[in-house]
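Contributing new complexes? Match this layout with 2-acetamido-2-deoxy-beta-D-glucopyranose.
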Amino acid sequence: MNLYTLISASVVVVLAIFFSLPLLNPTYWLSLNLKSWLWIPIPSSSLSSSPVIADLVVRNGVIYTSDESLPFADSMAIHNGRILRLGNFSFVQELAADGTEELDLGGKVVVPGFIDSHVHLIYAGLQMARVELHGINKKDEFVRKIKEAVRNAKEGSWILGGGWNNDLWGGELPLASWIDDITPYNPVWLNRMDGHMGLANSVALKLSGISNLTKDPEGGTIVRTVDGEPTGLLIDSAMKLLLPYIPEDTVNERREALVGATNHALMRGVTTVVDFGRYYPGVSAELPWEDFSDVYQWADASKKMMIRVCLFFPMETWLRLHDLIGKMGRAISQWIYLGGVKAFADGSLGSNSALFHEPYADEPHNYGLQVTESEILYNITMASEKSGLQVAIHAIGDRANDLILDIYESVVSTNGMRDRRFRIEHAQHLAPGAAARFGRQGIVASVQDNLYTYKLSHCV
Ligand SMILES: *[C@@H]1O[C@H](CO)[C@@H](O)[C@H](O)[C@H]1NC(C)=O
Ligand SMILES: *[C@@H]1O[C@H](CO)[C@@H](O)[C@H](O)[C@H]1NC(C)=O
Ligand SMILES: *[C@@H]1O[C@H](CO)[C@@H](O)[C@H](O)[C@H]1NC(C)=O
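Output block (do not edit by hand):
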């Protein structure tokens, strides 16, 4: 998976000043009904009474304020990471004293930090540590990337990566023999871009006991030479022969992943994310909970949180989340906010499992897959209604979207209209008339515009 699938803010920021928005004009936020984000303590009394001295004055910028009464300002006074005053330089300068730092922006643009509303932060960080083969269009380059990864790897550790696409170098499928001589001591596993096959080197084949004697499992193929020797390529369910041998990500790797992904987000001006965690159909619902305690709470306690996160948890664990909120509140700290629950209605386009009203052109009997029962989706949506949890459901195909719109509509008609922010993640293919229903029912179409670029098989 490419990182940009995960961190999708696409606007270039010249300079993002963090934490600025909520202070600019709290009533503006309230009028947008963004109450849920206002867990940030607002020292509003200090704004009017005893003037605080700025520790930084920024001037000569084009500062976008999100405040209708003063949309742009050229200067800004900051104290302890919070905005004290915006306006012209002389006005802002009133709050400066000895020791106030001054920063001349030379006309650069300043905008509030971006909020990316759909990321998988730790997963993204883990991907960053892996071999990235997206866009590689030469065999030599493919091999060089692996060589580079081996150089940085401990003997015996797995080298993982993916994103390769043999069509980009003329179609020839890769072979273990391409990389065997440069990886004599490390098992290697490299997913194809669509996730339906991968390349193992000979060390990895041996380690997982795949040999010329291994039979193809049902629904899968071990690609072989004319002599019957595995070439290293494993297709579909044959991948299951190898995957259990890949060790789980360690706590340290996951912590480093958070730090890496955070830096990546900050470089792009993203200061807050909604994180849907390392969770998709078929994996354990425990993963996001482990990340919550091992990674997020650790980072918070050790003052390593640099961006704000709003966490969503697997739908089937809603009660656990409900209980946790009862104990700790929604805002665990100024950095971590317990947001809601996430479920899946269907699969993905790249694997022909998104649910449609009409069959796939290349598979006339396949309409896609409903991955969670409607009754479960309905029940959980109703339950969340009672406990005040926000619900987000993944739906790619038009039928999946209609299904979720129906469920949401029935909850709304039973319980009445209110600001509950039901979300449909991706909302990618809509049947005629579906778009208008989002508006009528106040449902958020949580669209990720750049999923197309990176093949949808990994879109979760
Ligand atoms: C600067 O801003 C202050 C406060 O808004 C205003 O009173 C003053 O007239 C402004 N000065 C100039 C030169 O625009
Ligand atoms: C499998 O490989 C082994 C060792 O390379 C060889 O001895 C054996 O004949 C092969 N068996 C088949 C069925 O190809
Ligand atoms: C959904 O909720 C109803 C009413 O509480 C219950 O009878 C039913 O068993 C639930 N269904 C599922 C699949 O959980």
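Reviewers usually confirm one structural detail per submission. For this one: Residues 87-88, 90-91 surround 2-acetamido-2-deoxy-beta-D-glucopyranose (ligand 1) (CB under 6 Å).
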